Amino acid sequence: MAEVEASSVKPTPDALVGLDRVLHTSPWRVKIRRLLVVAVHVALWGGGLWLALKLRFDGNIPSEYLDALPHAVALLVISRAIAFYTLGLFHGLWRYAGVSELERLVFGTTFGTVAFAGLTTWWVTQGRMPRSVYVGEWLLAIMLLGGTRLLTRRLWERRFGQSAARTRTLLIGAGNAGESLLRDILRLRESTWAVMGFLDDDPTKRGALIHGVRVLGPASEEMLSKTIRRLEVELVILAIPAASGDRVREITGICRRLNVEVKTTPNLPERIGGAFKLSSLRQVEISDLLRRDPVQLDVDQVAQFIQGKTVLITGAGGSIGSELARQSLRFAPQQLVLFDHDENALFYIERELAKLAGHGSIRAVVGDICDPARVDWTFREFQPAVVLHAAAHKHVPLMEANPCEAVKNNVFGSLTLARAARLHGVESFVLISTDKAVKPSSVMGATKRVSEIAVESFARQGSTRYIAVRFGNVLGSAGSVVPVFQSQISSGGPVTVTHPEMCRYFMTIPEASQLVLQAGALGGTGEIFLLDMGQPVKIVDLARDLIELSGLQPDVDIPIEFTGLRPGEKLVEELLTPEEGCDRTTHPKIMIGRIEKPRPEAFQDQLEKLREAAYANDPGAVRRVLGEIVPDGTLLGGHKDVRDMEPAQQSTAA
C-alpha cells in the first residue's frame, strides 16, 4: 500500500530538476542519451516510411509492399544511420537545435534517401517501393525529425527559460543585435528576463513576431513611454549599435524619467568581432551619449599597411597605445612589439593579446624612449616595418610644473625614435599628436608641436615615411576628464569644472585608433593628418551627463563647482590656426593640414638650445626656447607654478 501511495505522488518541479541533475551527472548519461536518440530516429524513419505508403495507396497498402516493408525499413535505417552518424546528427542536444543543425538534417536525410532508393532499385529488390514513396518518405522524415527537434527546444525554453524570468524587459531594435540577444535570453536557463516586446522604427517590422516576441511599434518618445507604463517594463535594452549619440540620449532620458534601468549592446567601434551576447551588455556610458557615425575603414588599405609586418608600438601600455595594439592585431601582423617603461601596464596588455594571437607574435619590451641604446637595440632585434609612436607625457598642468621632463620625453624621445627608424630602414613612422599643438598655450602642446616639426624634418632625409596624426581628447583615457569626474561623483562631489564655457573635441579610443591606422596607410610623407572630431562638447554638459548616468541629479545630489582655468589651458581647442587650411583625403574623416614648415637650419640650432636647457633643468630657458620655435603660441603668458594654484586646482591638476 505504501508503495502504491508513493508511486502515485506527482513529482514536483524541484524533484524534476533533481532528477535532471542525477541523469546529467551519471557516467552513463552520454551512452543512454545517444541510444535513446538513435531509437527515436529509427522509430520515426520506420513510421515515416509506413505513413508514406499509407498516403500513396489511400490507406490500403497492397500485400506485396507490406511484405517488403521490413526489408525496406532495414535498408533505410542503415543508409540513414551512416549519413546521420557522419554528420554528427546523433550527437547534438535538441534543446539547442538551430538553423545549422536543420541544414545538416536535410542533407543527411537526402543522402540517406538517395542511398536507400539506389539499394532497393539496383540491388535488394525485396525492399523496392513506388517512386512517389521515396519522395513522400523524404518529406515526412524532414518534417518529423525537424519538428521533434524544434518542439524539444521550445519545451526546454518554456520550462527553463521564460518560466523563471522575473525582470520585465523591452528591447529597442529588432535587427540582428536584438534577435541575437533574444535568442540568448530564451535559450539560457539562468536568464532572469522576460522579454515583453520589441520597439523598432522600421515600419516593415510592425506586428512581426521574432521568436514569438512581437514588434509593438516605433521607438518614438510617445510609444516608448506608453509601452513602459502599459507593460510595466523594468529594464530597457538598447540593441541599436549604430544609433547616434542624440538617439541614445533621448531614449536614456525617457527611461530615467520613468525610473527604468537601461542597458546597451556595444557600439560598432567596440565590436572588433563576434556576435551580440548577453555577456556583452553593459550600462549606458558617456561614450554612447557622444556617439558619432561609425568609422568606415578601408580594410584592404589598412591590411596592406599592417599585414605580415612587424609593428612596433611605443606607449603600448597606455590607453591609445594598447588600443592601437588591439586594432593592429585584427590585420594579422607578423609580430607586435609592445614598448613601454610601465612594466605593469605592459604586463597586462601583453597577456591580453597573447591569448588572442599566441605568445610568439606578441613581444613586450620594457624600455624608455629617452634611452638611445635601448631604442637602438629594439630596432636591431625586431626590425620593425611600422612604428606607431604613442608614448608621451600628456597631462597639461603636470607638464606646466615639469617642463624639462616634458621636453626630454616628448621632443627628444620622439627624435631618438625617428632617428632609429631612419637608420634601420623602417617603412612608416606615425607620430600621435594633439590639437593642443595648435597655437600652444601649454608646455605639453608646445612640445608636441616641436615633435611634429622634428618628425617632418626626417621626412626629407631618407626612404622612411614620416607622418603625424593630430586629434583631440579621447573619452576614458587614463587621467582624462571622464575618470576624474567619475571619481568625484563616487565620492559624493563636488564635480569641479574649470570654466562654464570650456569646450573640447572628443572621440572614443577605438575610433581614434582606427583612424590613426587609416591615416598611416594613406601614403605620403612629411604630412600632418587631422582627424574629423565632430562638434565640440561643453565640459559642464559632460559633467551633467555623467552625474545623470550615475542615477543622480546635477546641482541637487551632486554640486558642480567652477574653479577657473588651470595653467596652460585654453577655453576652446582647434586643429588648425585660422591662417592654415587643409586638404581632403580619400577618407571622409581624415584631412591633411597645410601647415607652414620652419627653416631646417634655424630649427636645428633651436633644438640644440632646447636640449641644453632641458638637461640643465632650467624651466625658464625651456619656455623661452619653446616660445622661439613656436612663436604663434601663448606659452609665456599667464604661467603660474603648480605650487601657486588654489588647492582645488592642485588636486585636479595632479
Would you mind describing this structure in some detail?
Helices cover 49% and strands 14% of the residues. It has 3 domains: 26-159, no CATH class; 162-289, Rossmann fold, CATH 3.40.50.720; 299-653, NAD(P)-binding Rossmann-like Domain (Rossmann fold), CATH 3.40.50.720. It is an alpha/beta fold.
Radius of gyration equals 34 Å
The assigned structural class equals alpha/beta
Our measurement of the CA-to-CA distance between the termini, rounded to an integer number of angstroms, reads: 82 Å
**Which regions have little confidence, pLDDT < 50, spanning 5+ residues?**
1-27, 271-275, 637-654
Beta-strand fraction estimate:
5-15%
Number of domains: 3
Label the overall shape: elongated
Mean pLDDT: 80
Helical residue percent band: 40-55%
CATH architecture of the largest domain: 3-Layer(aba) Sandwich
